[in-house]
């Protein structure tokens, strides 16, 4: 993967075992150096230490988390971060394989088993890097003029009197475009129609039911019976990606 002219990729390694923590950090550093991806890696000995770092302004694009840790475990940490709208890619690394099925609850990118396999870690890191290196901003005509919009922060899109309304975690932005025009701009990202007039970012979906979906915020949106099969297929594809 070629080097990109952007800030270094920031990775957090969180494991309460010092040897495992050092090994994971070293392997990740060597893999990304070979791929010519500038990287900064920070190590944390507890989930609470990493949570505090993020809550006080620390920014990471990838989190490599052990699951079984004293006190707050990796799953609890991931749930707390997602509840706070943290978007970093999460890769769990653990000897407890039974916990792997819970990874979907926090939209984990990968679940790797200990002892850690270098090739599997490489695949997981490059998968996460692809999302990070993908362009995140598009320019849209809003009430304030031509505005840059962070694609990954869009939760869903719905119709508006003069176009569409983009819903974010803490704001709404109105855009003078049709929903099909916006969908065309988002086709390279993880969006899918749950209804003819509702376009949803799959990264924000918590549960999928027969006639509705629940977002991570708790908000519920209807699913058209004509869209259900396709939406379910795209959601499952997203979870397995």
Main β sheet profile: 5 strands, parallel
Give unreliable regions as ranges.
Answer: 1-5
Counting DSSP E segments of at least 2 residues, the number of strands comes to 15
Percentage of residues in helical conformation:
25-40%
CATH architecture of the largest domain: 3-Layer(aba) Sandwich
Structural class: alpha/beta
Mean pLDDT, rounded to whole units?
Answer: 88
As for the number of domains, it is: 2
Order the strands across the largest sheet as they lie in space: 2-1-3-4-5
The ordered string of helix (H) and strand (E) elements is: EHEHEHEEHEEEEEHEEEEEH
End-to-end gap: 19 Å
- Share in β-strands: 25-35%
Query: Which fold does the CATH topology of the largest domain refer to?
Result: Rossmann fold
Morphology call: globular
Which CATH top level class of the largest domain fits? Alpha Beta
Pfam families: LytTR, Response_reg
Protein name: Stage 0 sporulation protein A homolog
GO molecular function: DNA binding; phosphorelay response regulator activity
Keywords: Phosphoprotein
Descriptive notes:
The structure is a single chain. This protein is α/β, with parallel strands linked by helices. The protein folds into two domains: 9-133, Rossmann fold (3-Layer(aba) Sandwich), CATH 3.40.50.2300; 137-240, Beta Barrel (OB fold (Dihydrolipoamide Acetyltransferase, E2P)), CATH 2.40.50. The protein has helices at 18-34, 47-55, 74-83, 118-133, 179-185, 228-240; strands spanning 9-14, 39-44, 62-66, 89-94, 110-113, 137-142, 145-150, 156-160, 163-167, 172-175, 191-195, 198-201, 205-208, 212-215, 220-222. Strands 2-1-3-4-5 form a five-stranded parallel β-sheet. A five-stranded antiparallel β-sheet has the order 10-9-8-12-11, sandwiched between helices. A hairpin with a 3-residue loop joins strand 13 and strand 14 (212-215). The longest helix is centred in the N-terminal third of the chain and has 17 residues, at 18-34. Mean pLDDT is 88; it is low at 1-5. Residues 10-129 form the Response regulatory domain. Keywords: Phosphoprotein.
